[in-house]
Write a structure and sequence with these properties.
By secondary structure, the protein is an alpha/beta fold. Helix content is 39%, strand content 9%. The protein folds into two domains: 410 residues, Alpha-Beta Barrel (TIM Barrel), CATH 3.20.20.80; 34 residues, no CATH class. The chain is built from 16 helices and eleven strands. Strands 5-4-3-2-1-9-8-7-6 form a nine-stranded parallel β-sheet. It has a two-stranded antiparallel sheet with strand order 10-11. Helix 11 links the parallel strand 7 and strand 8. The protein is globular. The N and C termini lie far apart (63 Å). The structure holds zinc ion. Zinc ion (ZN) binds next to helix 7.
Length: 467
């Protein structure tokens, strides 16, 4: 017997596959995109001028601005302070640097979660997350969605026509999952749309097992802390639901941008094979497929995985050009065993993406943070400043990307052959300081200059890194 069915909210309406704007118009004008996340709010204004001069010298032509700026752009609810961002865009435009302008909705300000605690996500263990990190929002919270659209709308109203803005970047690395009651109610509605009847859900979920049968949509909750294994189909459906909830957030902000700037491509940054986001559902909704790939220099199989992720992006884009939105020029801040990259490895990782169909190779981030959780995440301008080996390599790579602009529009097979003929794997892999003699001392016969004799692994500074 069916008990009082829970009211089902109207489904989050996706607008259907849009005409993809793609990268072609942008890359025809700018060539291969090169740059990274730029967070000028972390620096005094005099540094901004140095940044633009250094970007120009390094061949940078696109930077992503404002990803985590919500608290500065809207310090109090409804009070917007956008002039500083306007100054940044003016400065970048004067320097002929294009801007991928972000909506800052991945990292809500403290006032949002304080005034409206339900905007903060809940973990599977029932813990409501606190302010102080990022990505702590609940995608089902009407207040969060309204405030996210409000700040996004303020940016669109002010900057949609700004000549520096060449692309829009919605949120950041969508992929978190919330288990709160608001999400629970949305999950019930999502299941109702998917299965139609509770009986069909019971059949699909196999709920005769362990007495899990449901009699009403209202009995169904998100996967939460439980004494033993959770129904695997319940888990799978919750992942699908969570991906759809986040996609609805992206779509409503994207449509806001499109109404004001119909010719400007809108994107967000994917995360390779991220298991909590169904990119095959997302890909038709973005104008540009963009990915974050953080290859691990300590993992000898990392180049294979990076290539696999790049090929996934090319597939998601339907063979059209995609862009590498984020990668690290050297070390990151989150790995327990965290090797720096050699400048040659940085260049190789970038060229690998270009060879596999990327028309842009960007990094996180432009200038290394002086503080915060990513203080020790590498950047194109390191703590030690521009007069460093790493930054000189950044400039050299920018110059060679300008020479590689001819591969824009080329078929992937052709560009791969061109990239690696023009700049051989071994030449870019070998770090400065190594010589065949030094490599010979590793005793593994893995000299990069003699690949026919090589096994797996590679040498770095005369020390063999193979197992
Ligand atoms: Zn939630």
């Amino acid at each position: 017997m069916r008990l009082n069915p829970a009211p089902v909210k109207a489904p989050a309406r996706l607008t259907g596959p849009p005409a993809r704007r793609g990268l072609d118009a942008l890359t025809r004008e700018l060539g291969l995109l090169y740059g990274g996340d730029y967070n000028p709010e972390q620096w005094p204004r005099e540094v901004w001028h140095e940044d633009v001069a250094l970007m120009r010298a390094a061949g940078v032509n696109l930077v992503t601005v404002g990803v985590f700026s919500w608290a500065l752009l809207e310090p109090r609810p409804g009070e917007f302070e956008l002039d500083w961002l306007s100054d940044v865009l003016d400065l970048l435009h004067a320097g002929a640097i294009g801007v991928d302008l972000a909506t800052p909705t991945a990292s809500p300000p403290a006032w949002l979660g304080l005034r409206w605690p339900e905007t903060r996500a809940v973990t599977i263990d029932g813990v409501r997350l606190s302010h102080g990190s990022r990505n702590h929002f609940c995608p089902s919270s009407p207040v969060y969605r309204e405030r996210a659209l409000t700040i996004a709308g303020a940016l669109v109203d002010r900057f949609a026509a700004h000549p520096a803005v060449r692309m829009w970047h919605i949120g950041n690395e969508y992929g978190q999952v919330c288990h709160c009651d608001l999400c629970g109610a949305e999950f019930q509605a999502w299941l109702h749309r998917r299965y139609g009847t509770v009986d069909e859900l019971n059949r699909a979920w196999g709920t005769t097992f362990w007495s899990q049968r449901y009699d009403d949509w209202a009995e169904i909750v998100p996967p939460r802390a439980a004494p033993y294994l959770i129904n695997p189909t319940q888990n799978l459906d919750y992942r699908r639901f969570a991906s759809d909830q986040l996609l609805a957030l992206f779509v409503e902000q994207r449509d806001l941008v499109r109404r004001a700037a119909p010719a400007t491509p809108v994107t967000t940054n994917f995360m390779g094979f991220h298991p909590l986001t169904d990119y095959w559902q997302w890909a038709p909704e973005v104008d540009v497929v963009a990915d974050d790939t953080y290859g691990d220099p300590a993992d000898e199989d990392s180049p294979l995985r990076q290539g696999l992720a790049h090929d996934l992006m090319r597939g998601l884009a339907g063979g059209a050009p995609w862009m590498l939105m984020e990668q690290a020029p050297s070390a990151v801040n989150w790995r327990p065993h965290n090797l720096p990259k050699t400048p040659g490895r940085m260049r190789l990782d970038s060229l690998r993406a270009i060879a596999r169909g990327a028309d842009g190779s960007c990094f996180f981030q432009w200038r290394q943070s002086a503080f915060g959780a990513e203080r020790f995440h590498s950047a194109l301008v390191p703590h030690a400043g521009p007069d460093t080996r790493l930054h000189r390599a950044v400039g050299a790579h920018g110059a060679e990307l300008r020479r590689l602009d001819r591969v824009v529009g080329a078929r992937v097979e052709a560009r791969a052959a061109f990239v690696f003929d023009w700049s051989s794997w071994w030449a870019v892999e070998e770090p400065a300081g190594c010589s065949p003699g030094a490599l010979g001392r590793c005793g593994h016969g893995q000299c990069p200059r003699r690949p026919a004799r090589s096994g797996r692994g590679f040498c770095c500074r005369g020390r063999c890194l193979s197992p």
